[in-house]
Amino acid sequence: MSDLDTATNDLGTPADGLRAVMSDPGAGMGTSEALIEVPAVEPGTAGPPCAYARLRTEQPVVKAQLPNGETGWLISRYADVRAAFADPRLERPLLSAWPPREGDDAPPPCLPTFLEMTGEHHERVRRTVLPLFGRRRLEFMGPRIRAMAEELLDEMVAGAPDRTADLVSAYVEPLPLRVLCETVGLPHEDRDLYLPHTLTLLSASGLSMEEVLAALYALQDYASELISRKEQEGEGEDYVHLLLAESRRPGSELTRDDVVSFVVTMLMAGYKTNMQHTGNALFTLLTHPDQLRRLQEEPAGIGSAVEELLRYIPLMNAINILVAKEDFILHGQHIRAGDAVVPVPASANRDPEAFADPDRLDLTRSPNAHVAFGHGPHTCTGGHLTRLQLATAVQVLLERLPGIELAVPAESVPWDETTPLRAPARLPVRW
Predict the structure, then answer these.
(1) Which domains, from first to last, does the chain contain?
(2) Region (Disordered) spans which residues (predicted)?
């Protein structure tokens, strides 16, 4: 999900900051060097990979072999990552068109997701969609999300006479899907139709173009069919109904295809990432009992705690593909038009140049200008909804089960390591 306005901080205007580094005439044109592999996450952790610490110091821009066999320039420093996301010379390619393929076998492009829209198209869609994720709308959704969380915990407790349960299956997995269905208007009963394709696309960097396209086309077809159903239903309060009503308004900037793209974007960005980050956040809190206790004693600190959990735990490790529209120099490396550039928020958020003692979890950290949601014109549109959902999940859990703790040693917790979004597969807890 994407699309907030470009922000600035003490680094200055991000695009200008990156342009200054890239245009340094003394930087040279760089020399070719052996490809590195994208740093791997250590087993049993969410990341970020420890190898990024060395890259930030020694090779802040380095060419890497990506999981799908392509190459791309990894950018690991905070200032460079933040600037890259906002630089107009770098654009996110269509998943259905990267890596590029020419000739008769080139596949027809899919509709762009919100992350891939550019220029005037991106601006007009952003103007319409942003209010759905604004403060007024989230005030409306807050009580609903809390009610969902409370219901799930009530069911978990009722089904656990021995006061032990798996927090992932009972709470972490179902909550984000229920929130997504409630806000967007996705039928929960259709989950076996759309979830397999969304999970496929989260592994897109390691898949063939054929596999990526099959999942994209399937999601696009599902979204179009769902919208046809919504059109027959008439008015509604979910996001799809609201956007459809806007698209039919005379003079509207939104088209039906844009609503299809919205559904696909939400399916790709609104479920698995939130589920896995919530699981990681709860695991992190349970393995930092002193900070967990402080949060219980000072619940008003949930806002800063959520920001720190977003910084400390990667929402992604290295799956942000941008493509250079022109040649430039960055830290002595000659990046050519058409090259893939991969800014890594997980590394940027652990950069000691931007965060004091970055490898330490500090739920009171302030300021905390992390880049978990990207930066610039494609900042994650759903960032505030993600914050609300995570804050609610933590708050309700600590209120209902104040004595909750891991029921097994932390090192024995099994992990789901099938995608770059690593998370505990199970979280056995007791209370």
Answers:
(1) 14-430 (1.10.630.10)
(2) 1-26
What count of other Cβ atoms lies within 10 Å of the Cβ of residue 45? 16
Task: Tell me the backbone φ, ψ of residue 324, rounded to 5 degrees.
Answer: -75, 135
Distances (CA, A) of 90 to 17, 125, 186, 236, 323: 14, 20, 33, 38, 5
Q: Residue 342's closest CA among 31, 102, 122, 55? A: 55
Residues contacting 25, CB < 8 A, separation 6+: none
Task: Give the Å distances, CA to CA, from 329 to 93, 320, 337.
Answer: 21, 20, 11
Note whether 269 and 3 are within 8 A (CB).
no
Q: What is the secondary structure of 75-87 as a DSSP string?
A: E-SHHHHHHHHH-
237-260 exposure pattern, b = at least 16 Cβ within 10 A, e = fewer: ebbbbbbbebbeeeeebbeeebbb
CB 128 within 8 A of CB 243: yes
Query: Within 13 Å, how many C-alpha atoms sit on residue 98's CB side?
Result: 22
Could you state, in chain order, the average pLDDT of each consecutive group of 10 residues for the chain (431 residues)?
33 37 38 79 92 97 91 97 96 81 70 83 87 86 96 98 98 96 94 91 72 89 96 90 93 93 90 93 97 96 98 88 96 96 97 98 97 90 93 98 97 90 95 98
pTM of the predicted structure, to 2 decimals: 0.89
